[in-house]
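Extended Data, panel c. Modelled sequence:
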Amino acid sequence: MKKILFLVFTLAIPASIFIFLKYFGTNTFEVPILFEQGIPGCDNDKQPHIVPNIEYLGKGDKSFQFHDLEGFIVYGFLDASNPDQYNKTIVDLIQVQDSFYEKKIPYFLLFVLGNRHERDTMEALLEERGMDKGYFNIAYLAKEELIDFLRCGMGFVDAPTDAFVNLVMSDPKGRIRGVYNSLDQAGTDQLILELQILKQKK
């Protein structure tokens, strides 16, 4: 009888904590806006940085602009010369996609450091691994355009050396809300959590 009472008491503690937090606790976790005063050397108006409306070539060599996209966007950077990096990043991209599959968010805009053949190969690999065709695009930018975009569009000060292990998330207003290390599972988990929070507050 004592064992049963002890077991009931032991189980009651976490249940009580859960109920208290559910009904009386408050979630004060906020996802900050990055570059609220702009990116130094790029923005001059001291306003929150907005991802610039750059024109790029996407699937089928069609011309697109960043501002054609709506909602939450995850920008991914893949180095075609580094299989360990891009394979891990692809796994992370699919994990994020599957976490929000029913909601069909976010949209993934991916940049590949490599030649045209390597970019086409990467696109096929992404589809083969399970990326939804309707919710990602490969953005083709010339090398100098890409480096400038990484620096003044994404805020990578030492672009491109610090860029190709990261994912970047922007909100529906084009503001950058997070930069995540795609080689660290904790970074992917943080992206998913912060996107859940932002989606709830939208």
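The radius of gyration is 20 Å. This feature is highlighted in the accompanying rendering.
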